[in-house]
Write a structure and sequence with these properties.
The chain contains 24 helices and 3 strands. It is mostly helical and 556 residues long. It folds into 2 domains: 161 residues, no CATH class; 269 residues, no CATH class. The protein is globular and about 70 Å long.
C-alpha cells in the first residue's frame, strides 16, 4: 500500500494519502525486482504442509507473480495513457470518487495531491518519450480525444473566467464545506487549493497536452498492435493475461464467429415472436432507430434512466437468496459518469467498495448520448454491473474472511467479466426479461461480447482497420454507429481485454452443467454460486479445479 497510495485510498487505507502512484521507470523496475524476490521467497514454504485453502492461496500467489513478471517483459508495449483511461482523467476521477475528506488532514492531503500532479505528469511524459523512442505509439486518431479530456479538466474556475467551477474545484469546495472547522481554517484550505490548481495543476496539464500533441504528429493510422516490433508475441501475452487460457488468436476468432451465428438464430425467434416482418438486419435497424426504445438526451431522460436502473437492481436484490447463500454487505448505487470524462469513457462500468463498506459499490452509466443506451439493454446492463453481477462478485470478494489480502484483489479478467456476462443469462433462468424486447437486449449484449472475439482478434492479429471493425459491429449487431465506434476504439486501446467476457462466461456455464449432471439431485445452485465466489478471483483453470473438488466431495 505504501508503494501504491491510490490503491490504498481506494481500499479506505490512508497510507501516503497525499501522493500518487509513481509512473517513473525506476519505480516500475523496482516493482519488477520486488516481484522476482517474492517468487524466490515463496520457495521457503512447504506447499504440502499447508491446508487445502492455503494451498489454493499459494498456487494463486505463485501464478499471479509469474503472470506479472511475464507481462512486464512487454512493459512499454502497454500504453501508459489512452483515450479511455489514464493519468489525465484518473487525477480528477480519483480525487472526486475515492479521496474522502472527513478531516482537515484529509483536505490537506487532497491539496498536496494537487501539488504532486506536476511530478506525476512529468513521469507520464517520460513514459511517452520511452515509447516514442521504440515506435510504440497509439494510432493518430486517439491523441485528440486525450487532449480534449485533458482540456476538460482545466476548464472553469479557477482556471478561467468562464463563469462555471471546474470539476475538481467544485468537488473540493463541497467537501470542505461539510467539514466542522472555523471560517478562517476553511478559507485557508480553499486558498491553498486554488493556488495549487492555478500554479501547479494547470501548467502540468498544459505540459501533458503539449507532449500528446507533439507525439500525435508522429503517430500512424495503423490500429492494431501487429504494427509493433514483437507485436504478435505481445498480443499472445495479452490474450493469455485476459482469458487465463492458452487459446490462440485464431481459435478465439473462430469461437466468436460460431457464437455470433448461434445468437443470430435466437434473435430470429424473438423477431418472429414480436411479429416483425423483414430480415434480421431490418430488425436491427428497427431496434436501432425506433424512438420508443430510447429516453431523450435531456436531463429528464437521464434521470428516468437512472431511476429505472435503480428499480431493476432493487427488484433483483429481493430475489438473490434464491440463488446465493453468501450476499454482499456493501451498498450499491447507480450513478451517471461525470461530464468531464463521459465523452471518452465506456458505456458502463463498476467501481467496487472498500472492505469497511465506507463507500458503496457504484454502477456507472454513461448517459452522454442516450441513443447509445437503449431501454431494451437496460435490464441486462443493470444485472451485469450491479446484482447479481460485479457487485456480488467484487463486494463479496473484499468482504471475505480468512484469505490473504492479495487474493481479494487479484486480476483475472476472464473470471470477473465472465461472471458479469454469466449474470446476464442467470436472470433469464430466474424468470426475468418478461418483455421480449428486453430479452432481445440480453441477447444483443451477449452478441456484443461474441463480436468482440471477432473484432479484437481481427484488429490486433488479422490487421483489420478501425473502419472494417466498426462495419462488422454495425452489420452484425443492433447497436448504433456511435456505440460501435466507441467500442472499437476501446478494443484498440486495450488489446485482448474484450475477449475475456465470453470466454469466461462459456467456462462458467460449462462447469455449472458439468456439476449439475454429475451431482444430479444433490446439485444446489446456491452451493455452485458460492463455490465460484468464495475464494476471490481465480484463473479459469483453478475455477475448474474448485468445481471438480465440489463434485468429488458430493459423491464421497
Amino acid at each position: 500500500m505504501a508503494r501504491s497510495p491510490l490503491t490504498a485510498s481506494y481500499r479506505g487505507i490512508k497510507i501516503n494519502n497525499d501522493k500518487w502512484d509513481s509512473a517513473a521507470e525506476a519505480s516500475q523496475q523496482e516493482s519488477r525486482n520486488i516481484l522476482e524476490q517474492r517468487l524466490k521467497d515463496l520457495a521457503r514454504f512447504d506447499r504440502a504442509a499447508l491446508s487445502e485453502s492455503e494451498q489454493l492461496s499459494y498456487d494463486l500467489y505463485k501464478l499471479d507473480l509469474e503472470r506479472q513478471i511475464a507481462s512486464d517483459e512487454f512493459r512499454h508495449h502497454k500504453f501508459v495513457i489512452h483515450q479511455f483511461r489514464g493519468p489525465h482523467t484518473m487525477v480528477a476521477s480519483s480525487l472526486i470518487n475515492i479521496h474522502r475528506v472527513g478531516s482537515v488532514k484529509d483536505a490537506q492531503d487532497y491539496i498536496v495531491r494537487l501539488n504532486n500532479v506536476s511530478t506525476l505528469f512529468a513521469e507520464v511524459i517520460e513514459q511517452l518519450e520511452i515509447r516514442e523512442s521504440k515506435n510504440l505509439l497509439l494510432a493518430d486518431w486517439q491523441y485528440p480525444q486525450m487532449v480534449q479530456s485533458s482540456k476538460n479538466i482545466i476548464s472553469g474556475a479557477p482556471f478561467d473566467d468562464s463563469g462555471e467551477d471546474s470539476t475538481i474545484w467544485d468537488d473540493f469546495q463541497s467537501k470542505v464545506a461539510a467539514l466542522d472547522v472555523s471560517d478562517s481554517e476553511r478559507e485557508q484550505l480553499l486558498s491553498d487549493a486554488r493556488k495549487a490548481l492555478v500554479d501547479v495543476v494547470k501548467p502540468a496539464y498544459e505540459q501533458l497536452i503539449a507532449a500528446l500533441e507533439q507525439q500525435a504528429e508522429k503517430a500512424s493510422g495503423d490500429d492494431g498492435v501487429w504494427k509493433f516490433k514483437d507485436g504478435e508475441a505481445f498480443y499472445a501475452e495479452r490474450l493469455n493475461w485476459f482469458t487465463t487460457t492458452d487459446l490462440s488468436a485464431d481459435e478465439i476468432h473462430d469461437i466468436g464467429l460460431q457464437e455470433v451465428a448461434r445468437i443470430h438464430e435466437e434473435m430470429k425467434s424473438i423477431k418472429q415472436q414480436v411479429g416483425f416482418e423483414g430480415s434480421l438486419s431490418d430488425f436491427f435497424v428497427f431496434m436501432r432507430e425506433d424512438p420508443r426504445f430510447y429516453y431523450p438526451t435531456t436531463d429528464e431522460g437521464r434521470e428516468q434512466y437512472l431511476a429505472e436502473a435503480t428499480a431493476l437492481i432493487e427488484i433483483m436484490r429481493e430475489r438473490l437468496p434464491e440463488q446465493f447463500g453468501v450476499l454482499p454487505k456493501a451498498e450499491l448505487i447507480v450513478k451517471r459518469v461525470e461530464p468531464f470524462r463521459e465523452q471518452s469513457a465506456g458505456k458502463a462500468f463498476y467501481q467496487g467498495p472498500p472492505p469497511d463498506g465506507s463507500r458503496p459499490g457504484i454502477y456507472y452509466a454513461n448517459l452522454y448520448n442516450m441513443a447509445d443506451m437503449p431501454k431494451y439493454q437496460m435490464e441486462a446492463l443493470a444485472y451485469h454491473e450491479g446484482v447479481p453481477g460485479h457487485h456480488m462478485q467484487r463486494a463479496i470478494s473484499v468482504e471475505l474472511d480468512g484469505i490473504p489480502e492479495f487474493q481479494k484483489y487479484a486480476s483475472f479478467t476472464a473470471y470477473t467479466e465472465g461472471w458479469g456476462l454469466y449474470t446476464e443469462q442467470l436472470p433469464k433462468e430466474m424468470g426475468f426479461y418478461e418483455d421480449p424486447y428486453s430479452d432481445f437486449g440480453r441477447l444483443a449484449m451477449e452478441l456484443w461480447r461474441a463480436c468482440r472475439l471477432v473484432v479484437d482478434t481481427g484488429i490486433h492479429s488479422k490487421r483489420w482497420t478501425r473502419e472494417e471493425a466498426i462495419d462488422y459491429l454495425v452489420e452484425n449487431t443492433p447497436n448504433s454507429l456511435g456505440d460501435s465506434t466507441k467500442a472499437i476504439e476501446r478494443y484498440i486501446a486495450m488489446p485482448g481485454q474484450a475477449t475475456a467476457y465470453l470466454i469466461g462466461k462459456l467456462k462458467i456455464v460449462e462447469l455449472r452443467e458439468k456439476a449439475r449432471e454429475a451431482m444430479g439431485e444433490r446439485f444446489d445452485i446456491r452451493q455452485f454460486h458460492d463455490e465460484v465466489l468464495k475464494d476471490g478471483p481465480v484463473p479459469l483453470s483453478v475455477l475448474e479445479q474448485k468445481i471438480d473438488a465440489m463434485i468429488k466431495a458430493a459423491s464421497a
